[in-house]
Structure formats: C-alpha cells, structure tokens
C-alpha cells in the first residue's frame, strides 16, 4: 500500500523548510535556497525534504564543496563574472555561500561588496539574472503594504533601502542600485550573523536623472524623471509605516540617497532607523581618527582637518569627530574650529555669497575676514592641515604635491581618501606612502593591496592601509539594535559603535600600524560593536529587551554570540532538527536509507538492510 499523504501528524519544520519540500521557488535569500539543495545534506535529510534524487548522489564535505567553488571562481575571468558566480551560490545554496564568505572574508568581500558591487550596479540591468530583493515603484504609492505583503519571508529583522540616486561615488544609477542593499545585507549576515532570511534588500524606483539609463532598452526601471522631494517624502512616509506594520521590530537602514538628510531627521525618532552614509561612515571614521590622533601624538586642540567633500558623509564624519574632540576637553566651538570643509566652490565660509545647503551651515567658517579660498591647493596652503579627509568622489585629487606638503608639515600626516569605489579614491595607498616617505597614517574607503616601500632612512617595510569602510560598524549597529529591541537608533549608539573599534585593536595590529582591526576578525569586532551599541541603547533608555539589562559584559557577549547565524553549524542543526523529529514520531533514526515521505518504500528499504 502506498500512503497518499506520508504522515498527517508530522510535527512541522520551519515554514521555509516545508515550502522547500514542495519546491516553491522564492525570491530573496533563504526561500528555496535554505540549504534545500545543499550537496552536503546526508540522504535522510534529502529524503525528508523531498530533494532526494534532485542533486548528485554523493553527500559531500564542506571542504569538497569549497574546493570546487574556489576552483570555479578562479576560472572566472572578470570581477563581474566572479560577482555573478558568487550571487548564484548565494541563491542556490545560502549556507555554502556564507561558509565561503566567513572563511575568506578578505578575498571575497571585495567581490560581493565594494569595489566590485559598484561595477555590478553600473551594469545591473545588463547582467541581471535573478530576483534577490524587493523593488517598489512610485506607481505603487497607496498600495505599498499590499506589495510588501508579497515578500515571502515572515520574520524580517532588517532592511537596507536605497533609491539608487547616489550609488557609492558613481552617481544616480536608479534601480540598478539594487546591488548595494544586497551587498550590505550579505555583510550583515557574514559579519554580524543576522539570519539571511531575516534580511530584506529594498530598492525604490522613484525615477532616475540618469538619461543614459532612461534611454537604455535594457534598463529595468521606470523611464520617469526623478520624483520631487515632496513626492519622495509622501512615498517614504507610507513605506516606513507599511514596513513597520508588517514587521514591528524592523531596523531600517537608509543607503546611498542623494540627499539623505530630510529622511534621517524625519524618521530617526519615530522609527528604528539610521543612515549608513551619514552615521555609519561617520562612526567608522571616528574610530580610525581616534586611533590615528593617538598615534600621531598631536592633541585634538592642535588638529586642523581639511575635508574635501561637504556632502552627507563629509558632514556626518566631521560631526562625529567634533563629539570626540569635545569629550577630549575642547568646547564645541573650539572643536568645530578644527574643521575646514571644502566643496566644489572652495572653502565653505558663511559669507561666500552662495546659498549654503542647510547641512553645511554648522561648519561654515566665520574667521576668514571676507577672504575666500577657491581650490583645494589654496585651502591646504592656508590651513596647513594635520588631517586630510576625502569624501569628494574625485579620484586622484590628493596629488603627489599635496601629499608631499602634508609630509613636510607633519611628522605623521593623517590621510583618509574615503570615496568609493577604488577609481574614485582621492589617492591610493602607494601614493600616500611614497609621497610621505612612509609616514602617513592612512585609511581608505575601498581596499588596497599592501605596499612594500623603502624610506629615506633605508628601512624597508610592508605598509597596510586601513579600510575605513562603514562595513566595520553597520553590521554591529544593526545586530545591537535588533537584540536590544531599541525603539530608535540614538546618536550615542552610533558614537559607541565607532568608539568600540578602538577597543578591539590587538597589540600586534597596533604594532603593524593598523588603524582598524584585521578584517578577518570582523565577526568578533561585530560582537564588541553590538555590545557597545546595546549598552548605549540601555543608557539612553530606548531598549525594550529588559532581560539583558543586568548581564555583565562577558555574559552579554555570550548572549550576542549564540544569537549569531553561523553558516558552518546550519547543516548540523538541520540534521539535529530532522533527527529529533524522526525519533519523536518513532521513525527509524537516520541511517541514510529511509525514504521519508513514503512509508512503504521506506520500510522496504530498511527491511532489506
Ligand atoms: O558601500 C560602501 O562601500 C561605503 C558606502 O556606504 C558608500 O560609499 O556609500
Ligand atoms: Mg553608502
């Protein structure tokens, strides 16, 4: 006799696994990929999931899977081919993808995130292969809740939203910006252990000012011009409400909006939200600057910082450092006076004659006696800075001449070219080292290979550039916010995330001149960032998770660690879960032979053994 339905009384697995058992394809992380077709699954898991026979017979070790993936990756000729190959693994075998990324974070992060994600976004509509996130159009206004209801994962904890209007330093890429939410959320999972199915990449199609895309037949977004700021605000109001209605605890990260200030101000106290480009970048540079200022031996009151770029990131970074200088004993006015912001019109002064954008007014200088400085060179000669921070998206603008002057004025000049991707970096590591005789304290937004250099004293050394990229903090900010169930992300939580980076440095990293922890330790770093963010949320009384208020730091770290998704234990935990289910209903314990789901066949097979 053949049972028409295998076991009506079967206790259920997660909805994802049940869905997987019926082969319903799902977009996004998880869904069909929740380990369902993992070639590491032993036969009894495959039988349980009804995937037996759908993958090659051998149950492989992770080492074998990894060897195959790395060999295939090596055969791919271009960074984009590697990017696409890795996306396919993420889609088809999510745990394997994260096992690979955690084990090879240094090598794989540049391929799934900055800088290669920049090229992927530029060519998104050309290279598109599969749905991996949600797209919401301006035409959906009024119905956003209904569209959001289509997202198949029930328990989203965090979303990264972009409207594509300022992707990295590459300008308005419209819906092609989707690579950014996907890339950022991959790092949330890899670096901070947010479960893949708890992440929602979200791209808004609010039109694009990119004429070339609007005329490109392959472009996958609407052809409309960018909506007005008022229309955008109405759309975002509805979106924030709809997201929070479906997932009440959701953390919302804004990313790569051309003008991100209005949304940050409007939502920061009413939704659990933050802006990564203002606050995340601000915090990560804060951490690096704290380390660099200590290393330079120059007290904050004697620092003079020139910022090239007075956009969201520039102002966000400068404000965080003002806070730090105030904590070091300066008054707010003294701290503010250390900063010289430069935009396309020159030094930002109060009497420059143009109408300054609101966010620049705070830093507009009033001590210029009517004089104006129009170019970076003029400003540099006027200020003789100790610190040069680039957020301008103008590749190579920190010229050898400028770098040499910085070296002449400072024993250890602080040089931070932070624009992304690499092509937009204000200088590269080699230029900074060679033109400062190896004395620069250097961090960049995009990664650079270490440089070997012999200085004028004849000492040959390997120089490692720090990567002052917000990937050091946003995963921990998200994790700490989720675990503390914070109702808002306060400035103090953001500050704590940057300061946490200074607490993570190992003696050997300081010895090597690192300004940031080694990237291979990112999961440990994220634990510390998350812990400090939780502490700040508790101090600000915005936390709702009362059970962790009284834990000491060690216990809190342990609490955080056990809640982090670890791809390496997923296969084992699926095995445990299925094993426990099978024994609870009296089925033969896994021996690799039972055809679960077909009682007769299963029994026959077992009987033969
Ligand atoms: O994505 C990155 O690498 C850093 C970032 O937020 C940006 O450049 O907008
Ligand atoms: Mg960004």
TrEMBL record:
<dbReference type="InterPro" id="IPR037062">
    <property type="entry name" value="Malic_N_dom_sf"/>
</dbReference>
<feature type="domain" description="Malic enzyme NAD-binding">
    <location>
        <begin position="278"/>
        <end position="538"/>
    </location>
</feature>
<feature type="domain" description="Malic enzyme N-terminal">
    <location>
        <begin position="90"/>
        <end position="268"/>
    </location>
</feature>
<dbReference type="InterPro" id="IPR036291">
    <property type="entry name" value="NAD(P)-bd_dom_sf"/>
</dbReference>
<feature type="binding site">
    <location>
        <position position="420"/>
    </location>
    <ligand>
        <name>(S)-malate</name>
    </ligand>
</feature>
<dbReference type="GO" id="GO:0005739">
    <property type="term" value="C:mitochondrion"/>
</dbReference>
<feature type="binding site">
    <location>
        <position position="255"/>
    </location>
    <ligand>
        <name>a divalent metal cation</name>
    </ligand>
</feature>
<dbReference type="InterPro" id="IPR001891">
    <property type="entry name" value="Malic_OxRdtase"/>
</dbReference>
<feature type="binding site">
    <location>
        <position position="166"/>
    </location>
    <ligand>
        <name>(S)-malate</name>
    </ligand>
</feature>
<keyword id="KW-0560">Oxidoreductase</keyword>
<dbReference type="Pfam" id="PF03949">
    <property type="entry name" value="Malic_M"/>
</dbReference>
<feature type="binding site">
    <location>
        <position position="256"/>
    </location>
    <ligand>
        <name>a divalent metal cation</name>
    </ligand>
</feature>
<feature type="binding site">
    <location>
        <position position="469"/>
    </location>
    <ligand>
        <name>(S)-malate</name>
    </ligand>
</feature>
<dbReference type="InterPro" id="IPR015884">
    <property type="entry name" value="Malic_enzyme_CS"/>
</dbReference>
<dbReference type="InterPro" id="IPR046346">
    <property type="entry name" value="Aminoacid_DH-like_N_sf"/>
</dbReference>
<dbReference type="InterPro" id="IPR012301">
    <property type="entry name" value="Malic_N_dom"/>
</dbReference>
<feature type="active site" description="Proton acceptor">
    <location>
        <position position="184"/>
    </location>
</feature>
<dbReference type="InterPro" id="IPR012302">
    <property type="entry name" value="Malic_NAD-bd"/>
</dbReference>
<protein>
    <recommendedName>
        <fullName>Malic enzyme</fullName>
    </recommendedName>
</protein>
<feature type="active site" description="Proton donor">
    <location>
        <position position="113"/>
    </location>
</feature>
<comment type="similarity">
    <text>Belongs to the malic enzymes family.</text>
</comment>
<dbReference type="GO" id="GO:0004471">
    <property type="term" value="F:malate dehydrogenase (decarboxylating) (NAD+) activity"/>
</dbReference>
<dbReference type="Pfam" id="PF00390">
    <property type="entry name" value="malic"/>
</dbReference>
<dbReference type="GO" id="GO:0051287">
    <property type="term" value="F:NAD binding"/>
</dbReference>
<dbReference type="GO" id="GO:0046872">
    <property type="term" value="F:metal ion binding"/>
</dbReference>
<dbReference type="GO" id="GO:0006108">
    <property type="term" value="P:malate metabolic process"/>
</dbReference>
<keyword id="KW-0479">Metal-binding</keyword>
<feature type="binding site">
    <location>
        <position position="277"/>
    </location>
    <ligand>
        <name>a divalent metal cation</name>
    </ligand>
</feature>
């Amino acid at each position: 006799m053949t049972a028409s339905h295998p076991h009506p009384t079967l206790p259920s697995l997660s909805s994802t696994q049940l869905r997987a058992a019926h082969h319903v394809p799902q977009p996004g992380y998880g869904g069909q990929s929740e380990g369902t077709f993992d070639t590491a699954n032993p036969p009894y898991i495959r039988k349980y999931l009804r995937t037996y026979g759908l993958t090659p017979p051998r149950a492989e070790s992770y080492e074998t899977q990894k060897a195959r993936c790395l060999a295939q990756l090596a055969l791919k000729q271009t960074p984009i081919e590697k990017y696409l190959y890795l996306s396919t693994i993420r889609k088809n075998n999510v745990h394997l993808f994260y096992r690979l990324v955690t084990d090879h974070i240094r090598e794989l992060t540049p391929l799934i995130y900055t800088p290669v994600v920049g090229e992927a976004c530029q060519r998104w509509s050309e290279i598109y292969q599969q749905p991996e996130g949600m797209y919401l159009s301006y035409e959906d206004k009024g119905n956003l809740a209904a569209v959001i209801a289509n997202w198949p994962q029930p328990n989203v904890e965090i979303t990264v939203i972009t409207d594509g209007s300022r992707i990295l330093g590459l300008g308005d890429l419209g819906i092609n910006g989707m690579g950014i939410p996907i890339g950022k959320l991959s790092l949330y999972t890899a670096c901070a252990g947010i479960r893949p199915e708890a992440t929602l990449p979200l791209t808004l199609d609010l039109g694009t000012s990119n004429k070339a895309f609007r005329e490109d037949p392959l472009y996958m977004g609407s052809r409309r011009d960018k909506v007005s700021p008022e229309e955008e605000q109405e759309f975002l109001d509805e979106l924030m409400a709809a997201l929070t209605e479906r997932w009440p605890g959701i953390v919302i990260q804004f990313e790569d909006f051309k003008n991100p200030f209005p949304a940050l101000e409007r939502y920061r106290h009413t939704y659990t939200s933050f802006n990564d480009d203002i606050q995340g970048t601000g915090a990560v540079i804060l951490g690096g600057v704290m380390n660099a200022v200590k290393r330079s031996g120059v007290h904050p009151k004697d620092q003079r910082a020139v910022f090239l770029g007075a956009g969201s990131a520039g102002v966000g970074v400068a404000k965080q450092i003002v806070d730090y200088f105030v904590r070091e004993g300066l008054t707010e006015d003294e701290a503010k006076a250390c900063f010289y912001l430069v935009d396309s019109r020159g030094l930002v002064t109060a009497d420059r004659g143009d109408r300054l954008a609101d966010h620049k007014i705070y830093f507009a200088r009033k001590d210029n006696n009517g004089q104006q400085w129009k170019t970076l060179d003029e400003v540099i000669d006027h200020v003789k800075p100790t610190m040069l921070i680039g957020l301008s998206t103008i590749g190579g603008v920190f010229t050898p001449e400028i770098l040499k002057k910085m070296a002449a004025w400072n024993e250890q000049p602080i040089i931070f070219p932070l624009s992304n991707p690499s092509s937009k970096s204000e200088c590269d590591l080699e230029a900074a080292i060679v033109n400062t005789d190896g004395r620069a304290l250097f961090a960049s937004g995009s990664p650079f290979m270490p440089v070997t250099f012999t200085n004028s004293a004849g000492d040959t050394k390997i120089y490692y550039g720090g990567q002052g990229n917000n990937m050091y903090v946003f995963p921990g900010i998200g994790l700490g916010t989720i675990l503390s169930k914070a109702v808002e992300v306060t400035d103090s939580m953001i500050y704590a995330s940057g300061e946490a980076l200074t607490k993570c440095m190992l003696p050997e990293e300081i010895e090597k001149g690192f300004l940031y922890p080694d990237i291979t330790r990112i999961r440990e770093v994220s634990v510390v960032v998350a812990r400090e963010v939780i502490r700040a949320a508790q101090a600000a009384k915005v936390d709702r998770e009362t059970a962790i208020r009284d834990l000491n730091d060690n216990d809190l770290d342990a609490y955080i660690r056990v809640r982090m998704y670890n791809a390496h234990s997923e296969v084992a935990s699926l095995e445990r879960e299925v094993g426990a289910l099978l024994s609870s209903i009296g089925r033969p314990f896994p021996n690799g032979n039972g055809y679960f789901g077909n009682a007769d066949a299963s029994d026959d097979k077992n009987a033969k053994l």
